[in-house]
Task: structure prediction
Amino acid sequence: MWATLTDHLQVIWGAAAALAIVVLLTPAVGGMARRIGAVDRPAGRRVNVIPIPRLGGLALFMGIFVPALAFLKLGHETRGLLIGAAVATVVGVIDDVSGLAWWQKLGGQIAAAAIPVSFGIWVDHFNFPGLGVNVLPRPLGIALTVLWIVAIMNMVNFIDGLDGLAAGVAAISGFTFAVIALSLAKPDPAILSAIVLGAALGFLRHNFYPARIFMGDSGAMLLGFVLATVAVQGLLKTASTIALYSCFMASASANRYCSSSA
Result:
């Protein structure tokens, strides 16, 4: 893994660039959110006692998109991933600003998930201990990939109820994915995972308790989309699925407990 890292220092530079961009852009995004009224008022599962701007996803998007353009090879699959990420962010921004009905949001999520699939990112087989390699029929693999991406997008959105929780889980997942990808000598998934790590850490600078900004649906959908898609693109499948699912389940339990106690 270390040999792969030294051969691909873009992993480090991508994470550093993402962190710097998000740290610098987030205050400006927060100011814009306040001006247009995209603020989260105390209610529901939120524990904030004053209105907090959302739309932090815009800073996260720039923190992921710009380093990705700079450090990744823009092959066919990578272009599909970035286009899908842009669509997921736009859907989230619309929901943060004006609100969407559940079916409109779900339709936007499915549309975003279908983009990388149409560019060739889908699960065509899986390897499970004791069962060996199992090849999936194309229609089933495509359907499961779309379902996986949409599910992770909503799981990140669900845990975005406590200051720093969703960004922290995304940072842990990004780090874990980068390590797995490097151990498998897959530099592009490692670079993108490290970029997610850097972006999430940069956002935590402004999102730790007491949070000065929330990522909103735009950020939650973006992070969920990228993490879910890079897991498929990098063929990390079983290992990444278990790591990601475990992180989200633990975080969801913490979110539910703390929200009920508040």
User: Anything to note?
Assistant: DSSP finds ten helices and four strands in the chain. The two ends are 43 Å apart (CA to CA).
